[in-house]
């Protein structure tokens, strides 16, 4: 079976969960080959990639690859596509992943599918388009299929692969060096899971009422082991940091469970969360549009409902 290249997402030498999902998906369609871009691959990381089915691990360990914004990773993948003729390339549908996918498509004269939430035989993708308003099936008809898959679309399952390592050197064009990274500012990593990777997200909106009241949302999130999200109304009001905004101009999440508290369900918010598997809405207005989307709805004051929910979860 042909190789399917999977671009590894990693932070501080650790492989992110989305990569394990992509390897699982790749295994169902061909032979997964992980691509590690940048220095710092550890024995643990290699073992993890092999554990989830990577038959090959291409390692491009040059410091240069991570010294510039995005473009070097697209060049690395383009060079691998030319050298290995893979059946497809999978990347995570994160902000960076989608940019890499687009650049790679141009470089390899191939078609690209972004925001895939499923991928089946013949690389036919279930794709969420128009800001999540419509789901379609898409297929690349030209070149090498390049597919950006949303985190949490596939449940990661371990199944050992050979994990054979091959070093790759990449020659970067001047264009790839156009935007240099001059400083990295580490975001504080709290105890909560990363928003785009979390299996459960609890989000608060204008209905939360104040920054202090977000402790109610955080309380439920911590009981469920969830990430905290917020609507733009809440982030614009300064109640919660912008990095947690969910929606068209914020992050896209596809968790197993999304709890929206005090959020009306504007189209721009939906764009970031409507591919969640199960949606629970808590809103005091029974006419709130979020209820059209929700699998379960609670009509009530979140300041009463959410603490009760937290208490019940804590009992289990
Ligand atoms: P509201 O629409 O004001 O809704 C608040 C809800 O809380 C109401 O339904 C109300 O009934 C309920 N409520 C009030 N008090 C309580 C209570 N005590 N208990 C329970 N329920 C209560 N929005 C985003 O979220 N993300 C985006 O990325 C985004 N991008 C945008 C991009 C553009 C170009 C534009 C124009 C807008 C964007 N917006 C985005 C804004 C979006 O249109 C909405 O204004 C925003 O989502 C509203 O946030 P909200 O639901 O928290 O507030």
From TrEMBL:
An example Gene Ontology molecular-function term: electron transfer activity
Cofactors that this protein relies on: FAD
Residues reported to bind FAD: 206, 231-232, 245-249, 262-269, 283
Domain of life: Bacteria
InterPro entries, alphabetized: DHS-like_NAD/FAD-binding_dom, ETF_a/b_N, ETF_a/FixB, ETF_alpha_N, ETF_asu_C, ETF_asu_C_CS, Rossmann-like_a/b/a_fold
Biological role stated in the UniProt entry: The electron transfer flavoprotein serves as a specific electron acceptor for other dehydrogenases. It transfers the electrons to the main respiratory chain via ETF-ubiquinone oxidoreductase (ETF dehydrogenase).
Keyword Flavoprotein among record annotations: yes
Keywords: Electron transport, FAD, Flavoprotein, Transport
Gene Ontology BP annotations: fatty acid beta-oxidation using acyl-CoA dehydrogenase
Domain Electron transfer flavoprotein alpha/beta-subunit N-terminal residue range list: 4-185
Subunit structure: Heterodimer of an alpha and a beta subunit.
Naturally occurring in which organism (per UniProt): Nonomuraea cavernae
Family indicated by similarity: Belongs to the ETF alpha-subunit/FixB family.
UniProt-listed Pfam families: ETF, ETF_alpha
Protein name: Electron transfer flavoprotein subunit alpha
Cofactor mode of binding and number, as noted: Binds 1 FAD per dimer.
């Amino acid at each position: 079976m042909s190789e399917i290249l999977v671009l590894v997402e990693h932070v501080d030498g650790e492989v992110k969960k989305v990569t394990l999902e992509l390897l699982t998906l790749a295994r169902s369609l061909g032979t997964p080959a992980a691509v590690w871009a940048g220095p710092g691959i550890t024995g643990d990381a290699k073992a993890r990639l092999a554990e989830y089915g990577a038959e090959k691990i291409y390692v491009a360990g040059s410091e240069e690859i991570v010294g510039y914004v995005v473009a070097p990773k697209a060049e690395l993948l383009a060079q691998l596509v030319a050298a290995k003729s893979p059946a497809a390339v999978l990347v995570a549908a994160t902000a960076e992943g989608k940019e890499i996918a687009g650049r790679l498509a141009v470089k390899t004269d191939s078609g690209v599918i972004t925001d895939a939430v499923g991928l089946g035989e013949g690389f036919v993708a279930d794709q969420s388009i128009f800001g999540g308003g419509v789901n379609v099936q898409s297929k690349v008809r030209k070149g090498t299929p390049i597919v950006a898959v949303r985190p949490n679309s596939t449940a990661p399952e371990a199944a050992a692969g050979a994990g054979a390592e091959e070093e790759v050197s990449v020659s970067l064009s001047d264009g790839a060096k156009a935007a240099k990274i001059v400083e990295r500012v580490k975001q504080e990593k709290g105890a909560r899971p990363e928003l785009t990777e979390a299996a459960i997200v609890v989000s608060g909106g204008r209905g939360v009422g104040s920054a202090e009241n977000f402790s109610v949302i955080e309380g439920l999130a911590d009981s469920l082991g969830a990430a905290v999200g917020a609507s733009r109304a809440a982030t614009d009001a300064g109640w919660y940091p912008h990095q947690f905004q969910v929606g068209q101009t914020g992050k896209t999440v596809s968790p197993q469970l999304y709890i929206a508290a005090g959020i009306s369900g504007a189209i721009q918010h939906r764009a970031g969360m409507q591919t969640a598997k199960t949606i629970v809405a808590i809103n005091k207005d029974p006419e709130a549009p979020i209820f059209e989307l929700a699998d379960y709805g609670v009509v009530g004051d979140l300041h009463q409902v959410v603490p009760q929910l937290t208490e019940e979860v804590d009992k289990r």
